[in-house]
Design a protein that fits this description.
This protein is α/β, with parallel strands linked by helices. The chain is 32% helix and 19% strand. The chain has helices spanning 36-43, 65-68, 88-98, 103-116, 132-144, 162-179, 214-217, 260-270, 283-292; strands at residues 25-29, 72-76, 150-154, 182-186, 199-204, 207-213, 224-230, 243-245, 250-255, 273-279. The strands form 2 sheets. It has a 6-stranded mixed beta sheet with strand order 2-3-4-1-5-6, sandwiched between helices. The chain has a 4-stranded antiparallel beta sheet with strand order 8-9-7-10, covered by helices on one side. Helix 3 packs across helix 4 (103-116). The longest helix has 18 residues, at 162-179. The two termini are 43 Å apart. This is ABC-2 type transport system ATP-binding protein.
Amino acid sequence: MIFRRAKEEVQALRGVTFSLGPGEGLALLGGNGAGKSTLIKVLAGILLPREGEVRLWGLDPWRFRTRLAQRYGLVLGGRSRLSPLLSVEENLKLWGALYGLVGAHAKRRIQEVAEALDLNPILGVAASRLSLGQRNRAELALALLPEPELLLLDEPFIGLDALGRKSVLNLLETLKAHRGVTLILASHELSGVEGVLERALVLRRGEVAFLGDLSAFRTGLDFRRVKVIFHEPFQENPPPGATVSEGGYVLEAKVSPEEIPGFLSRMLALGRVREVSVQEPSLEEVMEVWLRT
């Protein structure tokens, strides 16, 4: 007896419409299976949409993928374009040749991207021997080689530590501000992107759940994260929902804006307060709320 799994057709994207101009940045957000990677691949001309149309500089990326290859850079998290037996420098030279970079121009671009992404110490290392973070920095270098006008980045921070993330975000901010590069970035790791990207597209099961300014994305969340640091360890029972850390010196809680004055008064009555900070909800917290609704 042979069993065959029934095929089910899934429409990965439905009614997704947006446009971006030079120097704009879009955070592509959503849970697993929301359609983020599919949208990136459609924009890059890797997938052909059954309905609707996509235009990059007025051209269909599926039909004119070769012509557009030098105008956009692509990073697909988890899918490497590096040849494993070649060194990082040899990979850069190979892709430079594919992009049409030759001679002094190719050498200059390789030096520039290597310096920008701190690749010089590993230029002679075979791609197969790179750590995950090193490999992703090398992948981003490939995307930057042709000096693209558009960057399509799907999970570009995989394997990067906090310092590496900050370095890449600073680089993206520089490219956006000084060269007018347009950014579309899909990532589950959202800390820091607000300083680089000003708009957000949230996908839920292939449909647009939100499209607008990142600042408006927070609208409707009725809490702030309050952090209180005491001179002496906190001895009392913490308020409901609050957490105590650093040996009792630090208390954090989610508090609605109108309740913050009363909350701080209670904290002042419980001990000597050294420092207080009130922060907007992080993008991760905002996404948690969106994914639950």
